Amino acid sequence: MMKRNGKTGYTLIEVLLAAALIAVVALLMYSFFGQGFSLYGVETASAEEQINLRQAMSDITNAARITDPDDISVENGVLTVGSRKYKLADGSIQKNGAIIANGIAVFDVRRTSDGMLVIRIVNQNGTELKTSLSLNSSQTGGTA
């Protein structure tokens, strides 16, 4: 602050420097918080995609676990588990026509010769879930 003839005040240069310093600090803060909010949005979307995949996989595997293995079949990309039919249609996994997962690129289900049900789900961003279930029933029986 300069003092001339008993008057105090700021020079134009001091005011401009202070304004420039405040602008630089504000720009840095905006950049920092902007990246944080952007990253938060990306992570939230990724978490929602994973939840979507896990819920679909959980629905299918839970149904398969409580269903007699003889009532589980795979034909033309359609998984039939008892009275439930799971299929990929229009980028969604549907159960009896109702959508249970959106944004799906691959719904690959196969039943292997050794009694395994292999399920692979991939969303449109490339996130993949894969599981295998044993469909071998413990057969009890004997001679009468």
Would you mind describing this structure in some detail?
With about 140 residues, this protein is α+β, with helices and mostly antiparallel strands. Helices cover about 40% and strands about 35% of the residues. It is built from one helix and ten strands. The strands form three sheets. Strands 3-4-5-6-7 form a five-stranded antiparallel sheet, covered by helices on one side. It has a three-stranded antiparallel sheet with strand order 8-9-10, with helices on one face. It has a two-stranded antiparallel sheet with strand order 1-2. The longest helix has about 55 residues. It is rod-shaped and about 100 Å long. The relative contact order is 0.11. The C terminus is likely disordered.
- The rounded distance between the terminal residues' Cα atoms is 109 Å
Order of helices and strands: EEHEEEEEEEE
Q: How many β-strand runs?
A: 10
**Uncertain segments of ≥5 residues (pLDDT<50)?**
139-144
Task: Give the fraction of residues assigned to helices.
Answer: 25-40%
Amount of beta strand: 35-45%
Task: Give, in spatial order, the strands making up the sheet with the most strands.
Answer: 3-4-5-6-7
CA-atom Rg in angstroms: 31 Å
**Largest β-sheet summary:** 5 strands, antiparallel
Average residue pLDDT:
87
Number of alpha- plus pi-helical segments: 1
